[in-house]
Amino acid sequence: MSMTTTVRPGEPIQAALDEAGPGATILLAAGEYPGNVWIRHDGVTLRGEGAVLLPGPGLRPDVPKLHDAGEDVVSGVVACGVRDVTLDGLTVRGFSGAGVYAHSVTGLAVRDVTAVDNAVWGVYVREGDGCEVLRCRASGSQYGGVAVSFCGRGEALVEGNETFANAFGVFVDNSSGVRVLRNVSHGNAIGLLLLNQTYEGEPDGGVRDCLVAGNVVHGNDLASGGEDPGALGAAGPPISGVGIALIGTERVCVVDNDVHDNHPSGESVMGAAFVMGSSKGWGGDDAVANHILWNRVTGNTPLDYQLGVDLGLQTFAGNVAAKGEPGEAWGWRP
């Protein structure tokens, strides 16, 4: 039988986690908790009841650092190399790394978490297996609100989240078998980005066999990219006004999404609200065998869709859009 421990403001979360051990449930009473948290045991549930984690004097220097970030970058809730971890009902605010950072975790569930104004990522899942991010709100991060990165065949589920004021609302980065369902993404530079791009020193890439369905992607009008290290989406190419982009993907099915009123406010390497393209120039692949079905892509500028792929290698049917490139494409109608 699992042990349940209640922690109240002023009491140390980390001590409760470490003492309770594997399989424990830690309940956080309403209030603010300065400092970060490292989940080091399997089967742990960390549940908030109006609890807010934020930077403060309780920051621990020994917590695993965010991948590819400096030693001074601190994340809020960190899990690494464990399994069957649940985060539920927390708010994680204002950390210099990620709000939630999970690396090499099997069976992760992040539910009803609010990740706001964390500098690099909101909820960042990397090299995991069997993760789900459900009903979260992620905003104010330099890169992704919700990101699933290098998860291979991790079969991740990203469902029912709201993402806004990030460079990328939802970012599927070199991960396959991901389901992105019924999210609302607005006020980012790009709402949903699925990217196959090989990085030096990183695991094998690829974005294959994903489902993107029932999402509402609107009003994405921020501008990201550039050389300023503090800029939104720094070091990346300029992106603005994009709803959904599939870059170098294979066997990805995009069904019944509503992509409307996305308008660029700056330069962008992508010229429409719905974009398909190759990543071969970045060590990735051409986009092949994707199915784009029954989506509504309307009211966007400068174009509703831009299909920089071999159209004969994709399937399009029942999509609604007013203007795009190419001007007449099978499976698209006004």
From TrEMBL:
Keywords: Repeat. SUPFAM superfamilies: Pectin lyase-like. SMART domains: PbH1. Residues 76-251 form the Right handed beta helix domain. It comes from the Bacteria. This is Nitrous oxidase accessory protein. It comes from Herbidospora galbida. The lineage of its organism: Bacteria, Bacillati, Actinomycetota, Actinomycetes, Streptosporangiales.
